[in-house]
Every structure is written in structure tokens, then in C-alpha cells.
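Researcher: For the record, we're logging two predictions in this thread. I'll number them. Prediction 1 follows.
Model: Prediction 1, sequence and structure:
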Amino acid sequence: MHRNLGPGLLESVYEVCLCKELDLKGIKYLRQVYLPVRYKEEQLDADYKIDILVENEIIVGLKSVEQMHTVYAAQLLTYLKLADKKLGLLINFNVPRLIDGYKRMLNGYL
């Protein structure tokens, strides 16, 4: 997908294309999944959205930015904790080689 499109497009374009690839491979996913926030045993009127939740197990955070900031990784770790999931992928498509924009994260580990 990244080889066909290259860097420089909006995150939303990469999201649609990645979901198309998951469809073609028969992999189940949900897009833009609301993630409720609980604080002191109360659900707050504030929700986050997970970009893509794959097989109800893997949270995928998509970016298309010139530079990855540490806050993106921290944000994904927070999503993993809030959703009680173990594995997350942070993918920045705005790089010449996708391997340079990919980070695998585990809940509880940096």
C-alpha cells in the first residue's frame, strides 16, 4: 500500500487504504472506535477514538507527520491501558520507507 501511494497524503487516506487491505485479506477490524474514559469509577463525558482496532486485539494508531513526537507513543500506550489491550502499532506513513515509520508497543512496556 505504502509503495503504491508513497508519503505525503492525509491520515484518513491511509486509513481507508489500510482497511481495504485488511478486507482483502479477510482480517476483521473496526474503524474509529470510541474509547470511553473512566475516572474514579465514573465514566466521563469524554471519549477518544481508536483509529483501527484489528481482530478486537490490536490498536493501530495512524499518523502522517514529518516528525514523530514522543507524545504519540504515550497516547497509544494510554489507549492500550484504557481499552485493556496488550498490543499496539503506531504507523507514520509520511516516511520514504515504511519500516522507518513503524513502532510496535506493548501495554506496560516502553
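Researcher: Logged. Prediction 2.
Model: Prediction 2, sequence and structure:
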Amino acid sequence: MPLDHQKYVAWNGERFISWAEKVGENTAAVVCFFLGANKIEQQGYKSCMALLKLADRYSIKRLEAACAKTLTYTVRPSLKNVQAILKSGQDKLLDKPELETPPEASQYGFTRGAEYYKRGDN
């Protein structure tokens, strides 16, 4: 067997899952889906490798966030889903908490509010 091909013999599903668990639980869930999506486990290796290599281009934190976002809207995640989320930056939206801003008072001072419209029991 050529030397280039020998390194692929060591690949197996457990290795990909343990590698994905180092990134996070959502990434591990996507890798498990890739491994189980085909009749033969080895057919998912290329997708798993491509997914895990996204951490080199982006970051581990962003990859985990993208996998989490993918799993929130589909039960059949794909590599293209995760890549699109990372490319568009949608994974960064999970980090920002949505702040509720209280209604501002009117700049003109004409806002009467609820107290003005209460009926008095005189």
C-alpha cells in the first residue's frame, strides 16, 4: 500500500467522534450523524474530516456554535449548512444576548401614559 494511503487506514468512527468531542457536544452530534447517514461508515469520513478542518480556518468556538445553530433548525445537518453559517457569520449571533430595551419617554413630553387614562372612583 502506498505511504499516502496508509494514514487513512488508522481512521475510524471512534477517532472522529473523539476528535469532535474535543470541539464540543454539538460538533460530536453532527459527526455522529455523518457517520450514521450512509450504509457504510467509511463513506462519512470525508464529510467528518471536512467539518473538523473548518476549526482550522475559523475557530473551535465558531465551529461549535455553527453546529449548534445547524442542529436547532434541521434534524439532518450537512456540511454545506455548517459552512454557510460560518461564512455568513450567523454563528456569532448566538454569543450576543438579546437585550430588551425599556420603552423610551417621548422627546416631546406629550406621552400621557397609563396613569392619565385611569378612571377615578370618585
